[in-house]
Design goal:
Elements lengths: L13 E8 L3 H12 L4 E5 L6 H4 L31 H14 L4 E3 L3 E6 L6 E5 L4 E9 L6 E2 L13 E4 L15 E4 L3 H11 L5 E4 L6 E2 L3 H10 L9 H8 L4 E2 H9 L3 E3 L3 E5 L3 E4 L9 E4 L3 E2 L28 E3 L13 H16 L3
Parallel strand pairs: 1-2, 1-6, 2-3, 6-18, 8-16, 9-10, 9-16, 10-13, 11-12
Antiparallel strand pairs: 4-5, 5-6, 7-17, 14-15
Length: about 350
Amino acid sequence: MSFTLPGNSPLAPIVLDAVVIGAGQAGLAAAYYLRKRGVAFRVLEGAATAGAAWAARYDSLRLFSPAWASGLPGRPWPGNSLRYPTRDETVAYLRDYAAHFNFSVDTGQRVTRLAPASGQPGYAVHTAAGRTYLARYVIIATGPYAQPRVPAWANQLPPAVAQRHSRDYQRPAQLPGTGPVAVVGSGNSALQIAADLAATGRPLFAAFDERTSAIPNNQLMWTGLTLTGFMKVPRHTAPGRWLHRQPEGVVSGDLHHLRRLGNVAFIGRATGVQSGGIIQGAKAPTPPLEAVVWATGYRPNYPWIELPILAPDGFPQHQRGLTAAPGVAFLGLPWLDTRSSALLNGAGADARRVVAALLAGQ
């Protein structure tokens, strides 16, 4: 591939074979396979370092998979492979991974526009820092959807009730007071955050859907998942379509721990708000609350993509990561191909397949 480099300005476009947007696990795995194929590329990261999205997560976060099942291609985790790494260990691993392979990661380059290149094949990637990158291939690896999603009735809570989405929660001291707090959500992050808050001794109300399945999380389970290939079943197969319809389970040990705490009450799935700062659960209401943490997931937010690869609802349109725009692909999305696609242990397989397909012109 070649582009004509216009002018000699210090801010003239940077011409490459490929651009990877995002320096999390998916973007770094893509970089690994682009490097192996001899492709000239750069990874664009809006923050100051690789792995920055992990650094913004809550302090008490631990991976839900052991280190041996969480590595990126070409570099296993250091240290005890049986441990469940912490947030800070994960950030350190990703930074070390990028440094070990000496990937070209351009930090401070938040992408503001992805559009067809003017007058030549390929695409122009523009950043808030004023840079433009021209490339034949673009891999969008900004991770699972990043726009917080909360119930429509959340705005009915009075202003005195502090509200924070799990994306912006890091530690209990961020929430005011010592009185009742609710965590709304039925996923693993909701359980970890609830336990974090409950450890302060304040009354904790878990708005958790009782229909959510709970599964063990131990070395035996991960060995079984690995040997059976359960986490690698492609979504486009009949078994994969069935698995995709099943709700995500939570770690049974975390759920049982939370149920044993004397200052925690489970109120069932949150259904609405009552006057006075009360959240109604399927089983019971909370008392008047001082704060709420919404661990209720995310929705897509791609206003910077000017290509016909988004559905009317904003979700990416792709086939196992590949889009209708030749040379453009997604990585790191939930169920991009398998249940593990958005996880550390799924990034490598998806990146290998997507990079090979892009370079083959598929």
